[in-house]
Request: fold
Amino acid sequence: TPANAERSESFGEAIARLGLTEKDLQRREKIFLALCLFWGLMAMGALAHGSSLLLKGGIKGGILAFALAFLAVILCFRYHFWYFQVKQRLLGATFKLWLNSLLGRKK
Reply:
C-alpha cells in the first residue's frame, strides 16, 4: 500500500513551497507534453511492428512488441496526467476528472 501523503496542500501552496515561477510551470508543461507525444508515438510504432510480426508468424516477437506498446501507453498516460495537472493548476486530480477533461465534458 502506498504511504499516506505527508502534507495536504493546494497547487498555489506547492508552487510557493517549491519556489517555482510561471515560466518554470510553462516549461514543465512543454516537457510533459513532449514526453507524452514521444511515448504515444513509441506505442504506435510498437503496435505496428507487433502487428506485422504476428502477421508474419513471429508470435514471441509480436507478444513482446505488444508488451512494450502497453508500457509506452502507460508512460504516455503518466506524462499526460502530469501535464493536465500543471495546465489546470490542480493537485490531486482524479482519473475521472482527467478523462472528462480529455473528452471535453464539464464536471
Observations:
- The CA atoms of residues 42 and 72 lie 6 Å apart.
- Helices lie at 11-18, 22-55, 59-88, 95-102.
- The mean pLDDT is 85.
